Amino acid sequence: MAMSTLLVSLVATSVVMYFISKASWKIGAILNFLIGIFLISYVFALSTGTTSELGTLFGQKLQLIWTNASYYFSLVSLLVIVSVMLFAIKWLDSQKYPAAFNMFLLMMTAGSLGVFMAADLITLYIFWEIAVLSSMLIVPMGKKESRKAAVVYAVMSASGTYMYLYGAFLAFQRYGTLNISEIAKHMVSDPSTGIKATIFLLLASAGIAKSGIFPLHTWLRIAHGNAPDAFSAVLSGQLVKLGSYVLMVSVAALPSLKIFSNIPFYSGIPATNYFLIALGATSIIIGTLMAIKQDDMKMLIAFSSVANGGYILIGIGTMDPIGFEGGVLHVFNHALAAAVIFMAFASVVYRTHTKKISELGGLIHKMPITFLAYLFAIISLAGIPPMSGFISKWMIYQALVRKGMFITAFIAFFGSIGSFLYVFRPLAGVFLGQLPKKYKDVKEVSPIMWLPMVILVTISLIIGIWPFPILKPIEGMRMDFGIAPTMKIADSSHWLIKGFAGNWNPVLVFNLFLIGFVIAYILYTLFPRPKKVDLLAPHKKEGAPINIYTGGEFIYNPDLYQYNTKFYAGFERMYEKHPSWEKLLEMLAKFFYDLGEWVHGWFFRPSPSAYTFWVTLTILIVFWVRW
Amino acid sequence: MVAAYKALFNLVLGFFLVLSLEGVGRKITARVQRRIGPPWYQNFIDVFKALSKHPFSNGWVFDFGVLMALGGAMATAMIVPMGSTTWTPFPNSDNFFVIMYLFAVGALGMAMGMVGSGNPWASIGVSRALTQMLGYELPYLIVISSTIFYYKTASIHKLVELQKNGWNLLVMPLGGIIAFISLMGMLGKKPFDISTAPAEIASGPMTELSGKYLGLLHIMHVFAMFVEVSLFVDVFLGGGNLGWYLVKFIVVWVLAVLISSVLPRFRIEQMLKFYWGVPLGLAFLNALFVLLGWTL
């Protein structure tokens, strides 16, 4: 099947899916999942270099091309989406609008695949809007606050998209083409740095808005925090990666090192890229600090997405071979980790109906599989071996240290250690500790819900031990973009990953950990068997005290003996009075609102007809002067 | 196969070396404070006694956390080079960042297991330990980054080889001092023993430990300290044969113990303000010197 046929029929199917789901949402969800499986097989079968044509719009051909980048990003997206589709087969019974959810999820899939396949800027834009709008319509299906969340999401996304569109038109006006590879050629030979930098930044701003980079990061917290729980997994794991893709297109597909070779800023990195890196670094700081103090677990991970978007941008922005690979690999790692984490949270909310860390605790006794999935996902998110998250962080550090970018490296280290802090909070507050009395009858979620989490975590673990299958398309991508094509980073014959400053062998590291674990286990079995302490004793018998150390006191209510409110109070206190970007935006919004009120009060209310007259006149004058 | 024997030797040496040095440290602290102190082998007695007693277990994640902690610490101890290429078990994987993050597996395992015990004091201890990590790691990582930038390698045994003509401590004395201050925080020595603080939070993470759990986590702590001090010796104090390495190791240890024996404990935000003040500033200054080529 040609790519264009696939995309068009996917969009059409999504509408059909609505009516099928109206009859029975369960059948719709299962069909969605099967379509997802088919798409994965389709993605595997497609060979790079395949082109296809979608049609003509205003004399411009809408072209599709299948590259290494399309393969990689589509695969990552589909892994996340298909897992959520499987998850949704059971989870949707807690939702109000399952039919619309099924339809928009499929439509969003089509849009995302179209973005990755697009060969020119306008095709990219069209599919981008399909993906954004359909996802925007899923967001308000959550709780009451999510209506507002959808508006914020739409506005932020639009501000990025329109800048992108403006950039695309600017490029078209100057170079007469919209095809990305041709624009790249023209831009390399274009003498005017100002225009090139404008196009570059305008195109990148769509990515900045979408992947939640400062200053357009505020929607992430609101949208991810309030969207339907399972859809947050798609938002953070997949949709945000559309932004990373556009950033990659504007930094790497348009070879920024060559285009801006006349404005080097530091260590061979052009000023334009450095600007993006600075934004990424700011996002890491904001994301990490804000994530540490969140009480809402979904918002916590939403802020962590801001920080991880920063890592991706920094990695790609350096355009260093190893940094670029690290940034792109981080897309995969963060997608999987964030998807599993949000699905785990969705399972928790599905059972307990709350997302406040301070109201939860001890769920490990009731939901051990969800706990394990979350545990392995945060190991990956925090970048600890043997999970795959470590590999990309290692690569990004290598690039930063090699370039001597100590301040950026410092921020990256801060984000990494900070991530230990914030991923541990839900672990301690939600899954470990004392189980509150009201959740004593909570059960593990059904296998349909935990299976996708387990699958994704297993993939992440396998890639962490044997990363070469996923590094292959990334290396292909690097060759396509011509970033140091002679350098080889993944050496699968020697099981090594090579950096500029030394190698390491992921298989060996995993085996060492395994050996250490086995020795520890042998030691453990050698010594006397433990007596079990029943942590659930107060739940089983009314009036039974807690079994653990309480300083000699008797405590009968486990809810009182759980430390999960303001977990890092000592640290949080240090930046309580931080300036807030969100507040600033709110002030701006209020200013415009008041301005509107003023116009309304002074001109519209006294005489609507005069108001209409003046508005018409102003528009006519503007049109006449041609501003 | 040779690599496996070397790795095993790392474990054996690390265990006996650090456990006896801990005893020596207790003796030194006692003498500084004009007490007599326990014999140098007291910690062996402590560990074996703990291991032989009947323990209590607070659930499977408690057991799993202890195993993960000990396993992670052992894995890291197996990779760490000891002062020369001859005593480097895995020359292909002794990358600094690999060691640093593999080390975190053990720390995470311990944190998870202890919070899994269900005791809030353990949670508070872990919260403090992680905050402290944020404090000492940042100056340390900046110093190590500038070292890697200077020598163009992150492989520890190569760093050791490249110091043949002069110790890194003499090349960048500022960096060496900062790294030593960070080392004090890593080892959890006073004034940085905030996370265990027996008088405040009932030994923090260790609150619920009994019998073999206490023993196994003590062994984990031994390997962790072995890794931390070894990294400092390798990166800043050059190479040499195993004997020299042991001498340097002991000197660094005794110095840390001497400093800690006369200091009281920081509060958590005092610790952060301390590390993010002068040490972090000097670490950046050191990085600037390296960038400008102003090294000795």
List keywords for this structure.
heterodimer, A: 627 residues, mainly alpha, three-stranded antiparallel sheet, two-stranded antiparallel sheet, 8 strands, 69% helix, B: 296 residues, 72% helix, 1% strand
Structure in a nutshell:
The complex is a heterodimer of chains A (627) and B (296). Chain A has 627 residues and is mainly α.
Task: Describe this entry's structure for a reader.
The complex is a heterodimer of chains A (627) and B (296). Chain A has 627 residues and is mainly alpha-helical. Chain A contains 24 helices and eight strands. In chain A, strand 1 and strand 2 (60-65) form a beta hairpin. By secondary structure, chain B is mainly α. Chain B has one domain. Helix content of chain B is 72%, strand content 1%. In chain B, helix 5 runs parallel beside helix 13 and helix 6 runs parallel beside helix 10. The N and C termini of chain B lie far apart (41 Å). The mean pLDDT of chain B is 88. At the A-B interface, helix 15, helix 16, helix 17, strand 7 and helix 20 of A face strand 1, helix 3, helix 4, helix 5 and helix 10 of B.
Q: From the helix content, strand content and strand pairing of chain B, which structural class follows? A: mainly alpha
Largest sheet of chain B: none
Low-pLDDT segments of chain B: none
Q: Count the strands of chain B?
A: 1
Number of strands of chain A: 8
Sheet-strand content of chain B, in percent, reads under 5%
Any low-confidence stretches of chain A, pLDDT <50, length ≥5?
none
What value does the Rg of chain B take, in angstroms? 19 Å
Give the largest interface. Answer: A-B, 81 and 86 residues
Structural class of chain A: mainly alpha
How large is the count of helical segments of chain B? 13
User: What fraction of residues of chain A sit in β-strands?
Assistant: under 5%
- For the record, the count of structural domains of chain B works out to 1
Average predicted local confidence, pLDDT of chain A: 87
Q: Please tell me the overall pLDDT of chain B.
A: 88
**C-alpha termini separation of chain B:** 41 Å
Trace the largest sheet of chain A across and list its strands: 5-6-7
Give the end-to-end Cα distance of chain A, rounded to a whole number of Å. 48 Å
Q: What percentage of residues of chain B falls in helices of 4 or more residues?
A: over 70%
